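Quick one:
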Amino acid sequence: MPFRSRYVGERGIPQAGACAILPVHVSSSQPHESDARWRAVIEAAVDGIVVIDARGCIEAFNPAAERLFGYSEPEVMGRNVSMLMPSPYAEEHDGYLQRYATTGIPRVIGVGREVTGRRRNGSTFPLHLSVGAMEFAGERKFAGIIHDLSSRLLLEDDLRARESRWRAIVSAAVDGIIVIDARGLVEAFNPAAERLFGYSEAEVLGQNVSLLMPSPDREQHDGYLASYLRTGAATIIGKGREVTGRKRDGTTFPLHLSVGAMSEHGETKFTGILHDLSQRVAIEAQLREQTALARLGEMAAVIAHEVKNPLAGVRGVLQVLSSRLAGTPEAEIMGAAVGRIDALNDLMKDLLLYARPPKPKRLAVDIAALLENTARLVAADPSLSSVVISVEGSAPPVQGDSELLNIAFLNVLLNGAHAAGSHGHIAVRVNAAGDDCRITVADDGPGIPADIREKIFTPFFTTKSRGTGLGLPTVKRLIDAHGGRIAVDCPPAGGTHVLIDLPRFWTRS
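Output:
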């Protein structure tokens, strides 16, 4: 006898484009137990199952589909499945079925894809739809299995929000953050790291992180990674230490590196957090220098007190004896001894000035006029009278101590005159530069080699046979004490340019 499915109604003759509910006949030879078993499986399925005919009319709608769409089975039976779709899919669905029936070319059938469903209350939700075609009692049917993606998409949105939040935190971090894989290849490079090293993220992604290291660390890094992955013994990972970084321009700088290991999708990754120590190292160096200078000042004061006065007495005796023995070889020896004592006195003066420079007065100084007076003092030296010194330009008054500035510029001009040599020329230019006054002292001498130029402000370093090595260091200390800056440059064309910036004098209104 024929079996009537719970998914079909009474026999009817459908009109074109309309849906009708038809009975489904099952051969009497098929066991009823098998049909019941499959029906139980479909009704117990967690995913929605919807069966439609070739015209798109619903013939089966399991309980999971009822829960998904909010319709009961009787409400949808025999109705077009487009009722479960939002626009514009609802209007396009019948045309798709007709194209498939005509051409046999599927777009969804046999594959799965993410689509949007429409509930009874009009709300929409994401779902995964997989459709299969079948022949049943000589008619083509389509079975759709529907999986609700709402929870998954909510989770994905949450993960994206978290990722976005962490990306924002990493991007805003003051310290550099770099992520590398087990081979040492860079996978993440935040903006702070870009500022630290001078590379853009695009330039370093996929590159070996040793690019950011000087030798010998550069050559040893891959071996260290391999050793860690092989043995698990770490020397940096899990703690921090001070290392040296290498910028894009090749310069190096001190930094603190802390490294952590993590596992992502079964792969080992390493995260490095880098803090620039340049400022701290500079401050520490400055403190060491100040401590050394304080000790030097104490020593210089002792020398001046304990040695200067006795030397003055010895010098007086030598002068008396030299005058009594005038014209004799002994008088010449005593004269040479007086000269050595004078040189020693000059050294003590330079040492005291460098170690304990007086605190500058804060007065308005016409720097152009001061430089002209200093130039006249240099020209008054008979050994330098052939050197031409020109002072040009003008600027508002600077804030400073004219006596100390005169000492500083006298040292600079004397160095330039000695470098320029006989009939040389020194061009001094004064001009305003923002809130500063810029003084440029340019000589036409041979210039200073690069290796020596790096040491010219180092105390007691000198290339002169009778120099103390305190001239330019003292100049720098005096300029620094005025809140100014000094730099030395040697153009390719030759000569030496000394650039000094001093703050302008501002009157209180």
